[in-house]
UniProtKB/TrEMBL annotation:
Superkingdom, natural source: Eukaryota
Keywords assigned: ANK repeat
Name of the protein in its database record: Uncharacterized protein
Ranges where the record places region Disordered: 1-23
Originating species: Gonium pectorale
Pfam family, one: Ank
ANK repeats: 19-51
Length: 54
């Protein structure tokens, strides 16, 4: 059976901190392009926003 892909494959990719930020939103906030690329390739949710919709 093939491995699962997308956000369900690794729920930690979309885990939120106490302000609602995901690893992807944090990587974007600090302009870490390598982390952003890696997270996107691993299936991070590109539509995630923090608790104040940023």
């Amino acid at each position: 059976m093939p491995a699962a892909k997308g956000p369900a494959a690794n729920p930690d990719l979309n885990t939120r901190d106490d302000e609602g930020r995901t690893p992807l939103t944090r990587a974007c906030a600090v302009n870490d392009l390598n982390a952003v690329r890696s997270l996107l390739a691993a299936g991070a949710n590109v539509n995630a926003t923090d608790y104040v919709s940023r």
